[in-house]
Structures are given as C-alpha cells and as structure tokens.
C-alpha cells in the first residue's frame, strides 16, 4: 500500500470568518500535485474508515451510506491529494447549518469556493482542483461549480441528488430515506451534528409554524405514522426532517438552492454518473446533464441501485476523467460519445451522442381483463369488462399490502426499451386521496425477476404541466387537489428513465398498489428505511380498462 502523509484538523477560514475543519491525505513525496476535494456534513473522520473497512455491498450490516468521500488510498496512489472537509455546523467545523443543504443560511457553494481556492494556494497543490464523492458529496460538487471558483477545473458527480423536492417526495409521496441519511438510521451514520438549525423555525413565527404543523397533522397519512408526529411535535430533535415534513409541495423552498437551477452557471467539464434502479436520481442526473453548458458526459450504470460503501467503485472512470482535465493526459476520454447506457437484460453498453437517444418510439401496452398487457386495447365496454380493484386498509390495522398485477405474454424476440415512460390509469377512488405506486419487472421463465423502473403519484398531485409529452409526463407538485370520491379520473404516472432488453420467453410485469411491500427482492438492496409514507386512509380503488377507458403503459421501444 502507498505510504500516506496525513494532515489532520487544518483550519480554513471562510469569507465570513467561520472556520472549516479539513483533513488532507497525500503521498510522502514533497511536491505539488492535483487535489480532489470532498465536502459533506457526515464527518471527515468517518471517511477515514476507507483505509480500514473493506467495501460492503447492501444488505451487509456494515454498509454505511455516509462513507462516501472516496477511496483515500487509491486517490493518493494515483498521485492526487485528497482533501476532506466538514461542512459548517457539522463535525469539527464552526458556524451553523441552517436547513437541508444549508438552504436558509450561507450558501454552501460559497464555502466550497473558499475552500477550493485555499487548496489551490497550498504548496502541496499544483493549482488544479477537482472534487470527489457520491450522493451528498456529489451534490456539493454542483454547488461548488456553480460558484465558478477559478481553480476548479472539472467535477465528477456520481449518485448525486439534485432536485431536492423529487429526492424527498416521489410524485408527491414522502420518502423516508433522506431522513435516515440525516439522522443516522437504518444503515447510515447520519450528520455529524455540531450546530444544525431548522430553517422553518428560523424564518417563521411560532404562530405560523404551529398552523403549518396542525395542517400536516390533519393529513391521515402523517397522523397515522407515529415518528412523523414526533418530528412535528418536537422539531428541535429532528430539525432538517421537520423542515421537509412541513414542505410537502414544490416551490421556492426547494428551488432556491436547487442544484439543477444553479447548474446553468457551470461551464467547466462535468461527468455525470448514476446507477439504474434509483429512478428519481436517474431523472435528476439526466436533467442535470441536459442543463450543463460545457464539456460533459452522462454514464448510466448497471443495477443494483446502491454502490458499495466505503465508496470505491467507478474510481477508474473518475481517474480517467481527472487525468485528462487536471493532468493534461491525452487518453481519448473526450473522443468518445457523450452518453453511455448500460442496458439491463442483455447487459450490453450502448453509446450515443445525447439523451434521449434517437430511434425510440413510445408505444402503448394496454391493461386488459385477466391481468394481461396487450398491444391492442380492450374492445368491450365497462358493462362487460368490469374494472379490477383492490381495497387497502391502513397499515395501522394490517400488515398486508394489496397489489394488482398485469403481464405481457412471453416475448418472442429480444425487445429493448430505453427512455422514460408513463402509465395512464383510469381510477375510481372512494376517498379524497391515495398513492399510486407502480413497479415494472423483467420476469424470467423460472420466476426470477429484476426491477425495471418505478413510478409514484399522490392522487391529489395529478395535475400535469406544459413540459408533458407522450411518454414523458411532468407534474408541478405546487398544489394538492383533493380527489372527488366515486369519480373515474385519468391519472398519468411518470415512469422513471430506464434501459432494459426483455429477452425471449421473458415477460414484462407491472404491479400497482398504494403502499409498498415491506420486504422484497428490490427493497432488500436499499437501506431498511428506504420506503415511502404509506396511505393512512382506508381506500377502495377500481381500475377501469375497457373500450372507453384505455388504461395503459406508454413505453420507449427502440426501433434501430
């Protein structure tokens, strides 16, 4: 193993006088070299476990989602300095963190700018700076690049979270995993809290906060989930999650620090990378890629969704990128197509020049009686093709998640799909709201299956906006419109981007429910609390799929 020189607890002054604590790892040879900067609130000392803990795959009990700063030994061996910093309000750093991603306090991008410029002036750095780390660390790279520090030459963002509303509310349905990452639950160490504050408590009067808390507790979904009531009653115990629970609609709260909005300012080279199976993050990664102005790459990686921890995967891709942009090595990385797509099923890589790829045609697969999916719609009216249905009792009184499934006949030839999709469902609901959760599977002849993609929609968030095109719906999530009980209405659910080739004799299977199964082949690959807030209403659902109501999937078939 390469010998490492370690500088611990260096103090770096920010423009407002707050001091950030930084550790630096580098080779023993005393010379300037490029530096890779990692920033998060998860604790720089935790990241040093990459020197001692072998990488763990989910569902290992030692897998820790906060070990994300990169493989220190490998980075040093490749002749880079590895700089790991605690964000303000966390770890050994001073100052306070206000709101998630510091949305209410000093913008984190400013701190990143100041740290990068400090690094570039150190005798052990040659003035060429990049950044490293997945998830929160990756999002920090976007914040940093948007501030345009002169010495930040390129970034490599893998597994980041960008549209933070869509990270915490999938289709308007609350997702618990960001809470785990902040608090340290179910496979995450959480934030190394030093001084973390709620933005809601900082900006709103006690009366205004009390009114919003009361409104959230009036939602049966929230009221019937005890830990959420605890968060709302005792916000100082859970400052960051309190803010998220109180902001269930998209808008200025999230957009002010939305990395995708800020990415319009980025013109340095950016490599964007994400694994299939994390649909919401794939959507955000693609949106980030399309927003960027400078040299860029998009790399869509194989399932499963969660990389090993401590994070060490894809370092080969990263060093190839940084060797070119930080060391000036002509390795051909920019001579290749901009987009690389791993296609599940055939497990082949496809390279194209842009996203979405050319040669894709959105075609329908219709829901039919007897739980079939067909290329042709049902010819009989409702009287003869009576709707499918299910009743879901709240999980306060049952542990059974009800689910409907439809499937194609076995494919006769390899059938490839690449892109986004949609589900058009004509549903009659007997309460004022519910969840619509879809999961598409590639099922092999023996019954083995792998997740293809997912879709989520809170029924009260069904409005579409003008970005919507065939097979690519968008919901603004800026207001909730209660369901009219007993009315048949079309709900269009966005299916997150995917790439899958269904081989001969395989089937496409779609599941519909309003809650998720607590345990299955996909969820076991995620941390234990990576689930969505269940519906708290006792709800009946009727799914109409007849000559009048063309309930269907609209999927991106490749034609080349």
Describe the structure.
The chain has 15 helices and 25 strands. It is an alpha+beta fold and 560 residues long. The chain folds into 2 domains: 4-336, Rossmann fold (3-Layer(aba) Sandwich); 360-558, Jelly Rolls. The strands form 6 sheets. Strands 15, 16, 17, 19, 22, 24 and 25 form a 7-stranded antiparallel beta sheet that branches. Strands 1-2-4-3-6 form a 5-stranded mixed beta sheet. Strands 7-11-12-13-14 form a 5-stranded mixed beta sheet, sandwiched between helices. Helix 3 (108-120) crosses helix 4 (136-146). The chain is globular. 50% of the residues are buried. The model has no long low-confidence stretch (mean pLDDT 94). GO terms for molecular function: dipeptidyl-peptidase activity. Keywords: Hydrolase.
Concise overview:
One of its GO terms (molecular function) is dipeptidyl-peptidase activity. The chain is an alpha+beta fold and 560 residues long.
């Amino acid at each position: 193993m390469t010998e490492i020189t370690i500088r611990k607890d260096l103090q770096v002054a920010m423009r407002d006088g707050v001091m950030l604590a930084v550790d630096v790892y580098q080779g023993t040879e005393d010379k300037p070299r490029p530096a890779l900067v990692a920033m998060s609130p998860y604790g720089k000392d935790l990241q040093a476990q990459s020197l001692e803990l072998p990488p763990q795959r989910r569902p290992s009990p030692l897998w820790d989602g906060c070990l994300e700063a990169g493989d220190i030994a490998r980075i040093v061996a490749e002749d880079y300095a590895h700089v790991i910093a605690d964000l303000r309000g966390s770890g050994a750093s001073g100052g306070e963190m206000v709101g998630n991603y510091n949305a209410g306090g000093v913008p984190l991008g400013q701190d990143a700018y100041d740290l990068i410029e400090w690094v570039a002036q150190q005798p052990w750095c040659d003035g060429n700076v990049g950044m490293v780390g997945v998830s929160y660390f990756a999002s920090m790279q976007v914040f940093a690049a948007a501030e345009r520090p002169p010495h930040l030459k390129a970034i490599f963002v893998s597994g980041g979270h960008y549209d933070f509303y869509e990270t915490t509310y999938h289709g308007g349905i609350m997702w618990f995993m960001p809470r785990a990452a902040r608090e340290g639950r179910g496979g995450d160490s959480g934030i190394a809290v030093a001084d973390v504050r709620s933005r809601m408590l900082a900006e709103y009067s006690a009366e205004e906060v009390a009114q919003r808390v009361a409104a959230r507790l009036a939602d049966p979904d929230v009221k019937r989930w005890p830990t959420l009531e605890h968060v709302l009653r005792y916000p100082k115990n859970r400052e960051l999650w309190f803010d998220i629970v109180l902001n269930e609609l998209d808008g200025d709260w999230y957009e002010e620090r939305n990395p995708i909005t800020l990415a319009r300012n980025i013109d340095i080279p950016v490599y964007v990378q994400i694994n299939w199976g994390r649909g919401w993050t794939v959507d955000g990664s693609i949106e980030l890629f399309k927003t960027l102005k400078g040299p860029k790459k998009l790399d869509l990686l194989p399932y499963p969704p969660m990389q090993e921890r401590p994070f060490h995967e894809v370092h080969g891709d990263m060093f190839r990128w940084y060797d070119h942009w930080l060391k000036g090595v002509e390795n051909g990385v920019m001579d290749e197509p901009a987009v690389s797509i791993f296609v599940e099923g055939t497990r082949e890589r496809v390279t194209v020049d842009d996203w979405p790829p050319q040669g894709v045609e959105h075609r329908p697969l219709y829901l039919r009686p007897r739980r079939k999916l067909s290329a042709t719609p049902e010819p009989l009216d409702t009287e003869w093709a009576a709707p499918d249905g299910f009743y879901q009792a709240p999980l306060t009184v049952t542990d059974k998640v009800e689910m409907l499934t439809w499937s194609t006949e076995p494919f006769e030839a390899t059938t490839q799909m690449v892109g986004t999709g949609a589900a058009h469902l004509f549903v009659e609901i007997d309460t004022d709201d519910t969840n619509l959760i879809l999961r598409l599977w590639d099922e092999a002849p023996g019954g083995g299956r792998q997740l293809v993609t997912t879709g989520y929609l809170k029924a009260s968030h069904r409005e579409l906006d003008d970005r919507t095109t065939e097979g690519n719906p968008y919901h603004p999530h800026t207001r909730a419109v209660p369901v009219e009980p007993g009315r048949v209405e079309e709900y269009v659910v966005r299916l997150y981007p995917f790439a899958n080739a269904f081989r001969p004799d395989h089937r496409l299977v779609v599941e519909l429910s309003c809650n998720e199964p607590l345990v299955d082949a996909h969820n076991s690959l995620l941390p234990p609390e990576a689930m969505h807030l269940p519906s708290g209403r006792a709800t009946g659902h009727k799914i109409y799929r007849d000559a009048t109501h063309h309930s269907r999937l609209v999927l991106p078939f490749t034609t080349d």
